[in-house]
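ok trying this again, last paste got cut off
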Amino acid sequence: MTIQELYGKIGGDYEQALRVLRMDKLLDKHIRKLTTSGVIDRVLEAGKSPDPNELFEAAHAMKGVCANLGLTRMAEAASELADEFRPGTGRRLSDGEVADRIRRIGEMYRTTAEEIRKYEEG
C-alpha cells in the first residue's frame, strides 16, 4: 500500500498533508508516529474526568497534529471540542454531547490506527 492509498482508506487529505510536510518521506514518518504519539490518547483520557483546561489543551494539540497530517475529519472534531472548552467562552454542549464527541474521536482514531498498522506491515 502506498501512502496515497493509505490516505484514501482513512479519508485523509493527502494533498493537504503534502502541502504542509512537503514530501512523502516526511508524511510517511509522521503518519506512522500518530499511533504512538499519545496526542489522541490524551483527549480520550481527558474526557474521563472532564477538566476543562486539560480538555482544551488536549483537543487543541490534537487539532494541530491532525490538520498538519491532512486528517481533516479528526481535526474538525478536535477543533469543535477545543472551542467548547476554550478559556473565556461559555459551554454550549451538555456533558453527554461532549462524551459523544469524544467517543466519536475514539472511533475515528481506532479506524485510522488500524489502517496505519496495515500500511506499516507493508
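PB: full thing came through this time. The chain has a mean pLDDT of 95.
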